[in-house]
Amino acid sequence: MMNVVLVGCGAMSRQWLDAARQIDGLAIVGLVDLDAERAKARAHEYDLTGIVIGTSLDAVLDQTRPDAVFDVVVPAARREVALSALAHNCHLLTEKPLADSPENARAIVEAARLAGRIHAVVQNRRYVANVRRIRRFLDSGAIGAATSIHADFFVAPHFGGFREEMAHVLLLDMAIHTFDAARYMAGGEPAGVYCQEWEPANSWYRQGSSASAVFDLGGGKVFTYAGSWCADGFRTSWEGSWRIVAERGSLIWDGHDLLTAEVVATGRDGLFAKTQPIDVPPLDPADRVGGHLGIIRDFMHAIETGTEPETRGADNIKSLAMVFGAIESAETGRRVAITQETP
């Protein structure tokens, strides 16, 4: 049995608790929130009787001595929570983003390394079935290596609350899902970025609701991102819409169920090489999916086997580096180099 304390009982905690109660061998033994009444309400909602509830993570960890901590706090509190969990010798699974600054991200990853604990991030777009299919298809070499990856993200949610007041709202709050998916599907590592942000006249956000970025993913791969939080009409999927150009063909994914590919065939049709459709194989049974549920299971498996989970912090920090690199570029108006050591 793996005992877990969850800290941060806001709306997002429901996704975690919904997943946790589907997993045999996992027990929530404590809930922590600055608002004790909110923690009590969540415990009642999920019939978590007999657990420890408190406002101090250190105190609850001292009392329960769990195997792991689930961190669902706001990003500004993440470093404090992470260091507390690791100091209590707990493994750590955290909601995205890994941290709210490059410095805090490095501090958390280093603390996990020194503690010898598993640290992973809920980067759940990797656990989408078509993302897995695309990665496996590209790895097969059916259309050659990816050279250009293009993603569009255009939705117009009226969240209310903190998002409409925060700076860099699109890049900081949402874009990491698309950035990480691009890294994963194309197998690239970020080397540099140029980004521009703007606030359209139709926007209801304070700053940064629209952005366009060009990333160098190394090895001749380029990833372009165009996105907006205030684009009414022709809404894309929350996964975005994708075109991946490879050495011998292309793949298109609408972010929903439409996933098609074409490969170069023999001969020409006037100026153009002939192409023909090619099937993208279905999901492989070995591919891990399921959003929060899949990631929590992956995290538990890593702890039980002494292996590294796919969304480990030491890897996820590279996707976070893309976010902070894009923000720096947007603020300075220049291309920003992204190193593997400095997110």
UniProtKB/TrEMBL annotation:
UniProt GO MF annotations: nucleotide binding
Gfo/Idh/MocA-like oxidoreductase N-terminal domain boundaries: 2-120
Domain GFO/IDH/MocA-like oxidoreductase: 131-251
Protein name: Gfo/Idh/MocA family oxidoreductase
